[in-house]
Amino acid sequence: VDILTLHVPKTKETTGMIDREVLKALGTKGYLVNAARGGIVLEKDLLWALDNKLIAGAAIDTFETEPKPNAALIKHDNVYCSPHIGASTLEAQIAIGHTVADQIGKALEGGVVDYHVNLPEVGVIDQPIMKAYSTLAEKLGSLVGQILDFNPQSVQFQYRGDISELDNSIIRLSWMKGYLNKVVDDYVSFVNVGRHMDRLGIKVDEKVDPGFSSYNSALKILVRGAQGQQMTVGGVVFENRHLRLTLINDFHFEVEPTGNMLLIANHDRPGVIGDVGQYLAKSNVNISGFNLSRNVKGGMAMAVVSIDQTLSPQNLKDLKSLPNVEVAKAIWI
Question: At how many degrees (to 10) do helices 193-200 and 169-183 cross?
């Protein structure tokens, strides 16, 4: 006697994989057992095989249509049924309890649970690289929400390198959540970010670049306004845990996006760094990191300054009044 048992998830690849050809190959002494998922077996083909005595019988715990399965199938003399109770063993119930506790912890911390019922756009987030890039994306969204000076009309997500071959929906949702938390007054969650974006009239599209080779993976976001305005931010993750802000418009950095930061845009002239440092020192603001970038010699420069405390509106006004300084904005991530 041959017995074919199914123990696979229901995916695009497994849906309908047990059809007439498989059942005929099982043979007249063969039995089929499906305790996996409904839809993996084509039930019309199974009923055909049973009626024509091409297999000896079947045992089914999951069906294509529940709670009303195919009546002809469950009444068949050679079919043994159970009402989808595969998860009712003691071991399964203990595992479910551990899973529920773990998911409650994620939800309370503001994360995305792995087995959601109201977030259909996202699959199970089971790869460290996706968890890391979703965190980076939320931080980049928060940054954009704090420094953008125009109303965005569209956002393009560019997935580069290894992450371009994965399901990046959680990255997209995370960026939206980070951005919207800074620009709307209503409650923002992974569930409702799409509605918020629609309400703001912001269109979203995505682009992949698997041939990107500067890093193993990278994320780039392009924000456009109705009047031709444009802003670009980007970042990378090293070793699935070290998050770095690497791009703001034409300026390249390698900054850990965390805590209080000061963004300075200025004409590339001597003395600006000294003026900014002296002002912060006089204001008793300690600098913990200073990252400087310029597009061309004598053109524009940008600095991302990590600091130990928040700046007041007066601090920002004073900094902007310094010679050659065009922009001074506070960021908290």
Answer: 60
Asked whether the whole model's pTM tops 0.85, one would answer no
From 7, 13, 20, 37, active-site residue: 37
Residue 250 has pLDDT above 80, yes or no: yes
Active site includes 13?
no
Residue 224 · residue 152 · CB < 8 Å: yes
> What is the assigned CATH class of domain 2-81?
alpha beta
Helix (H) or strand (E) holding 136: helix 128-147
66 in catalytic set: yes
Q: Is the peptide bond before 67 cis (omega within 30 degrees of 0)?
A: yes
pLDDT digits (tens, 9 = 90+) for 307-316: 999 999 999 9
Q: Label residue 182 exposed, middle or buried (CB < 10 Å: 0-12, 13-18, 19+).
A: middle
Burial class of residue 189 (count of CB atoms within 10 Å of its CB; 0-12, 13-18, 19+) = middle
Residues 225 and 183: their CA atoms lie apart, in Å, by: 15
CATH of 118-256, one of 3.30.1330.90, 3.40.50.1450, 3.20.20.70, 3.30.43.10: 3.30.1330.90
Residue of 7, 13, 21, 66 with catalytic role:
66
**Marked catalytic residue, from 20, 21, 84, 116:** 84
Q: State mean pLDDT over 60-64.
A: 93
pLDDT over threshold 90, residue 216: no
For the stretch 140-153, pLDDT in tens is: 999 999 999 999 99
- Output the DSSP codes for 49-74: HHHTTSSSEEEES--SSSSS--HHHH
Confirm or reject CATH 3.30.70.260 for domain 259-333, answering yes or no: yes
